[in-house]
Design brief:
One of its GO terms (molecular function) is protein disulfide isomerase activity. It comes from Atta cephalotes. The strands form four sheets. A five-stranded mixed sheet has the order 1-3-2-4-5, with helices on one face. Strands 6-8-7-9-12 form a five-stranded mixed sheet. The protein has a five-stranded mixed sheet with strand order 13-15-14-16-17. β4 and β5 form a beta hairpin. It has three domains: 106 residues, Glutaredoxin, CATH 3.40.30; 106 residues, Glutaredoxin (3-Layer(aba) Sandwich), CATH 3.40.30; 107 residues, Glutaredoxin (3-Layer(aba) Sandwich). By secondary structure, it is α/β, with parallel strands linked by helices. The chain is built from 14 helices and 17 strands.
Length: 412
């Protein structure tokens, strides 16, 4: 009788433990606020609409549980409305037929699906955020050429389509407003009719040329100008490669008096006003505003990699943006970050820096610096990390953050 009572108590304890585990598992699923969840009924339909990176998993799998927070972070920065990629999950304990069809033999299995394809490319790398984002970037890059959407309208009424063969000669003299684009880019498609209108309105102006270049077809030109997002609009005066300074630190700085990046509103009126402003600039006054440090190297946004990072942050305050080119939040921050760089232009004690975590030469660096989301903003003093910025990403707050750390150091 006593033995039966003891067995009954043990059984109850196991039941309570099982219920607790199930409740915790269920709670974890609720925390996947950004990750899409697919079943056999909607998998093929959804994968046909956009590029997808899918995790096939089992809730009881330890490796899956450890990956889950990183996968959710990946979903948070990727599953934006204007993004060309979707991050999703499939529970193989409830969708066994679908997982069998996708040749899933272990958990977690991660597969990338190009738009419209049901056969995925298996991910075999380490499961950290920088490596996963780099894999996505590589796959999107390969699909850009293979899955190019219909090209924008043919160049008419003053709009010139440039190529690798014609670009350098064309921009080597005169004033040029150039759109660097990709045909698959939604923002580029929205801008296309406005860009045509701008070219048409200036077609009789012999002083300025309005042009465009397809970066999926002419990557070498876009690489020279460090094009990281589309569309990028550059004002170029009398120049080509020599207007982009390439230092040993792998930094790229486009001189303000030769190449200027347009970051304003993309309406016809704003674009035309910008052209008028650039044509009306006094070259002598503009040149006098250019500041240089004692080495003659202009201070602005430094693009660093693992090879140059230690040297780049070893002196003074260094405010570093760790980012991914495809990240929507990073794209929105980019023009503000450029403005922040201009505010400290010529200040030898402050460096405004960016690091692309999707580059092979930077993935390990981003891991070592504990970058777990994009953008991540860290402040360093004389090579040592002193603070992470988590405030509002407007220009005034970012500027005040740096200045407050300068004052704190002065008081000490």
């Amino acid at each position: 009788m006593l033995s039966l009572v003891m067995i009954d108590c043990v059984s109850k304890r196991w039941i309570l433990l099982l219920l607790f585990v199930l409740s915790q598992t269920s709670h974890g699923h609720d925390e996947d606020a950004h990750t899409l969840r697919y079943t056999h009924d909607n998998f093929s339909i959804e994968v046909g609409k956009k590029n997808h990176f899918v995790m096939f998993y089992a809730p009881w799998c330890g490796h899956c549980q450890r990956l889950s927070p990183t996968w959710e972070q990946l979903a948070e920065i990727s599953n934006e409305e204007d993004s060309n990629i979707r991050i999703a999950k499939v529970d193989c304990t409830t969708e066994s037929i679908l997982c069998s069809e996708q040749d899933v033999t272990g958990y977690p299995t991660l597969k990338f699906y190009k738009t419209g394809e049901t056969k995925g490319i298996k991910f075999r790398g380490t499961r950290d955020l920088p490596t996963l984002t780099s894999f996505i970037n590589d796959q999107l890059g390969s699909s850009m050429v293979e899955d190019v959407m219909p090209s924008p309208p043919e160049a008419v009424n003053g709009l010139l389509e440039l190529t690798e063969d014609t670009f350098e000669k064309h921009v080597s003299s005169g004033h040029h407003f150039v759109k660097f684009y990709a045909p698959w880019c939604g923002h580029c498609q929205k801008l296309a009719p406005t860009w045509d209108e701008l070219a048409n309105s200036l077609r009789n102006d012999d002083v300025v040329s309005i042009s465009k270049i397809d970066c999926t077809q002419h990557r070498s030109i876009c690489g020279q100008f460090d094009i990281k997002g589309y569309p990028t609009l550059l004002w170029i005066e009398d120049g080509k490669r020599d207007n982009v300074i390439q230092q040993s630190l792998h930094l790229y700085l486009i001189l303000n008096d030769k190449v200027d990046k347009y970051t304003g509103q993309r309406t016809h009126e704003e674009l035309k006003a910008y052209v008028s402003m650039m044509l009306g600039k006094n070259a002598e006054n503009e040149s006098s505003r250019k500041l240089e440090n004692t080495d003659g190297i202009p201070n602005a946004i430094l693009s660093l990699t693992a090879d140059s990072f230690k040297q780049g942050i070893e002196k003074g305050l260094s405010f570093v943006k760790f980012f991914a080119p495809w990240c929507g939040h990073c794209k929105r921050l980019a023009p503000t970050w450029e403005e922040l760089g201009k505010k400290f232009f010529g200040n030898d004690n402050v460096n405004i820096i960016k690091v692309d975590c999707t580059l092979d030469v930077s993935k390990q660096l981003c891991n070592e610096q504990e970058v777990d989301g994009f953008p991540t903003l860290y402040l360093y003093r004389n090579g040592r990390k002193v603070s992470e910025y988590n405030g509002s990403r407007n220009l005034d707050d970012l500027y005040d953050f740096v200045m407050n750390h300068m004052k704190t150091h002065d008081e000490l």
